[in-house]
C-alpha cells in the first residue's frame, strides 16, 4: 500500500477502533461483549499459533521445557520429601501404638498377679550369644536386675535372666532346649516340668501318669523356692496334644506357648514376687465356644395326599 493521505487516515481509524475495543474489554471484565469473539478466535487460531510457534521458536520451546521440567522436578522432590517424612511419622506412630498395646497387656498381667516388674526392650537376639534361644534386654544391674529372675510379657512366660551386665541382661527363652520350668495344670493342679523344643511346642512331663488331661487345658508356672528363678501363676500355654500314658509313671503333653518367641519387643523382669500365689487368676479369659447353627426342616404334605384314615385299598 502506498503512503497516501487516505492510507494514513485508515491507519489512524484502525488504531482508534483497536483502543476502543481494548477499553470496552477491560471495563467489561468477565462479562466483556467481545469475550465470545475472543474465545472463538482462540479456538480457530490457537492450534495454528502453537504450530507456528513450535516451528519458528525451537530455542524458546527448549528453554520453556527445561524450566518447566525443573519446576516439576522441584515439586516432585518436595512431595517425595514430604511423603517420606509422613511415612516415617506414621510408621513411628504405628510402632508406638504397638508398644503401648504390649505395655498395657503386660501391666495388666502384673496387676492381676501382683508382680513387681521392671520394663525393658529387646535389643538383640540369640545370634550374639551363640546358637541358644536367647535375647538381650536394655536393663541390667543398674536397674535392679539380677540373675535367675522371671521374665514375662503381656502374653505370659518369656524366660529367665541368665547373665547380667551393668545396663543389659541376657534372657534364656522358654523355647530353648536347655530351659525347664515347673508347671501346674489349671483347676486340676497336676504338676509337671515343661522343656523348650525350639520352634516346636513345649514338652511337658506330668508327674501323674494317669492324669486326665485333654486338648485345650491350660498351664501356669508352679513357682520356685524363694520365687527364683520362677514366680508362680505366670501363664505358660495351652495343651495341643496328649500322648497315651501306656502305663508309664509320667504322662507327656505338648503345649503351645502363649508367647510368640519370634516377635518379642517389650518385656518385663519380675523384680518383686507376689505376696501370695495368684494361681489361675492371671490366665486370659477362655474363648467363648462358637454356637452350632440349628437347621429345622418342615415337611409340607402334598395336596394329593389322602387325609388321615382315608387310604384306599387296591383291589
From TrEMBL:
Keywords: Cell shape. PANTHER family: CELL SHAPE-DETERMINING PROTEIN MREC (PTHR34138:SF1). Residues 277-315 are annotated as: Disordered. Residues 130-270 form the Rod shape-determining protein MreC beta-barrel core domain. This is Cell shape-determining protein MreC. Involved in formation and maintenance of cell shape. Transmembrane segments: none annotated. Pfam families: MreC (PF04085). GO terms for biological process: regulation of cell shape. GO terms for cellular component: plasma membrane. It comes from Streptomyces dysideae. Belongs to the MreC family. Residues 277-288 have a biased composition (Basic and acidic residues).
Amino acid at each position: 500500500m502506498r503512503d497516501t493521505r487516505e492510507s494514513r487516515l485508515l491507519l489512524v481509524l484502525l488504531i482508534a477502533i483497536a483502543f476502543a475495543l481494548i477499553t470496552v474489554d477491560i471495563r467489561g471484565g468477565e462479562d466483556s461483549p467481545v469475550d465470545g469473539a475472543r474465545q472463538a478466535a482462540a479456538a480457530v487460531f490457537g492450534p495454528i499459533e502453537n504450530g507456528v510457534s513450535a516451528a519458528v521458536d525451537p530455542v524458546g520451546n527448549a528453554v520453556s521445557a527445561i524450566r518447566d521440567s525443573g519446576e516439576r522436578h522441584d515439586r516432585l522432590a518436595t512431595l517425595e520429601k514430604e511423603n517420606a517424612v509422613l511415612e516415617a511419622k506414621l510408621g513411628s506412630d504405628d510402632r508406638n501404638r504397638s508398644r503401648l498395646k504390649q505395655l498395657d497387656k503386660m501391666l495388666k498381667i502384673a496387676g492381676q498377679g501382683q508382680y513387681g516388674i521392671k520394663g525393658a526392650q529387646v535389643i538383640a537376639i540369640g545370634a550374639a550369644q551363640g546358637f541358644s534361644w536367647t535375647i538381650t534386654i536394655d536393663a541390667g544391674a543398674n536397674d535392679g536386675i539380677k540373675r535367675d529372675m522371671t521374665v514375662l510379657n503381656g502374653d505370659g512366660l518369656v524366660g529367665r535372666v541368665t547373665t547380667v551386665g551393668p545396663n543389659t541382661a541376657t534372657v534364656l527363652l522358654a523355647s530353648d532346649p536347655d530351659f525347664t520350668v515347673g508347671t501346674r495344670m489349671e483347676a486340676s493342679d497336676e504338676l509337671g516340668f515343661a522343656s523348650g523344643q525350639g520352634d516346636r511346642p513345649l514338652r511337658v512331663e506330668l508327674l501323674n501318669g494317669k492324669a486326665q488331661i485333654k486338648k485345650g487345658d491350660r498351664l501356669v508356672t508352679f513357682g520356685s523356692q524363694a520365687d527364683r528363678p520362677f514366680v508362680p501363676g505366670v501363664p505358660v500355654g495351652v495343651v495341643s496334644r496328649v500322648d497315651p500314658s501306656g502305663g508309664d509313671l509320667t504322662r507327656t503333653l505338648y503345649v503351645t506357648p502363649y508367647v510368640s518367641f519370634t516377635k518379642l519387643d517389650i518385656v518385663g523382669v519380675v523384680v518383686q514376687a507376689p505376696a501370695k500365689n495368684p494361681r489361675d487368676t492371671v490366665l486370659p479369659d477362655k474363648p467363648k465356644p462358637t454356637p452350632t447353627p440349628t437347621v429345622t426342616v418342615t415337611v409340607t404334605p402334598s395336596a394329593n395326599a389322602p387325609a388321615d384314615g382315608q387310604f384306599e385299598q387296591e383291589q
